[in-house]
Design goal:
- 29% of the residues lie in helices and 27% in strands.
- The chain has 220 residues and is an alpha+beta fold.
- Strands 7-8-9-11-10 form a 5-stranded antiparallel β-sheet, covered by helices on one side.
- α3 crosses α5.
């Protein structure tokens, strides 16, 4: 019933905890009263980002399920609206867009979140599948995840791929671009940014090291 609220979105664990969720048995749970305290709503988010709601009457402890059915009526409508408002607030404050699909892209996103506490920022309405990371102290970008056609990188097809743009010291750029699978920065200053396709052509281990280097360069 409430699936569309979280469609193409991914929860951010740190933000769930900040919001008031508690972690139990691998799931996140949040309890709140609604309808002037008449009901208690329990929201559960599992490891696969499936969201479930459990509503019960505070006085009796009995589960109230009518809001999940096709039942109509003013009162049930008010309950659904109250639940919807809460879930939309959680979605806006604890979730981020989830538009990337490549396994290596998702691993890099998780790494940056764990290592630096940074989440991707989707800055362009016209380009919803492009996003950046920036340092909290300098506010400088140190990475970008973009979706482009391979031909834009001078390759032999128009297949869409997910790429990462990272910083490098300008004096190191020429040597780096001699290597296979490294390209001039797409939509970035080509003197100090380069591109890698997130298709496993460069190992995770090397990419993590390159992200660290880029993060440090953005401190200046």
């Amino acid at each position: 019933m409430f699936e569309d609220i979280f469609k193409r979105r991914k929860s951010v664990p740190s933000k769930l905890l900040e919001y008031g969720f508690e972690q139990r048995d691998g799931k996140y749970q949040y309890k709140i009263g609604i309808m002037n305290g008449e009901f208690a709503l329990l929201i559960t988010i599992d490891a696969d980002d499936n969201v479930d709601t459990f509503l019960y009457e505070k006085e009796t402890g009995e589960e109230y399920v009518l809001y999940k059915t096709n039942a109509a009526g003013t009162y049930i409508g008010e309950i659904r609206t109250a639940i919807t408002d809460i879930l939309q607030d959680i979605s806006s404050k604890c979730y981020q867009p989830s538009v990337f699909k490549a396994p290596q892209t998702l691993r890099m996103i998780d790494y940056v979140s764990d290592a630096y506490g940074d989440e991707l920022e989707f800055l362009w309405t016209k380009f919803p599948d492009n996003a950046v990371w920036r340092r909290k102290d300098t506010m400088k970008w140190y990475g970008a995840i973009l979706t482009v056609q391979r031909s834009k990188l001078g390759l032999d097809s128009n297949k869409q791929v997910e790429i990462i743009d990272l910083r490098i010291a300008p004096e190191q750029m020429a040597e780096l671009l001699k290597r296979e699978n490294f390209y001039p920065g797409w939509h970035m200053n080509k003197k100090s940014w380069y591109t890698v396709i997130l298709d496993e052509s460069v190992s995770d281990e090397e990419l993590l090291s390159l992200i660290q280097d880029s993060y440090e360069l953005a401190a200046k």
